[in-house]
Design a protein that fits this description.
Number of strands: 11
Structural class: alpha+beta
Radius of gyration: 14 Å
Strand order of the largest sheet: 1-6-5-9-8-7-11
Distance between the termini: 6 Å
Number of helices: 4
Order of helices and strands: EEEEEHHEEEHHEEE
Shape: globular
Helix content: 10-25%
Strand content: 25-35%
Amino acid sequence: MSGKIVKLLISKDPQSPMLNVNQMVLEFEKGIFGDRYYNQVGTFSNKGEIEPDKDVTLIEIEKITALNEEHNLDITVEDFRRNIVVTNCDLNSLVGKEFQIGEVVLKGIRLCEPCKYLADKLSEKKTLTEMVHKAGLRAQIIKGGSIDLNSQVEI
């Protein structure tokens, strides 16, 4: 299976909007350089404690598109606050598995379920139930490196 990156996103802190970037540097046991979790200031950060499921998050554009079409919504990829948006890649199948994006090696740790934060931000409680098991993947960085919009997801 091979997927394509649609967007790369980071945010410096929980209140800042997600910023589109053309390239990201992922560091082993740190996260994505410039992102809120790299600096241990993310909403779900445990200060000083490195948690592998906070390194990087991914989501499939197809899941967001389907939600929007089915419920006549306009939820953006930025609203989900995931770092890497992909297409043509079944992220759920990657829990417990290693995969590669460019020179970076990641391991799927667990599904990234929708949270109350997202539902409150969007005033759309249905996102909690509609996006269960569809809201992405939390992954650990096994081998760091740089990725860009041309990097492929290789399983």
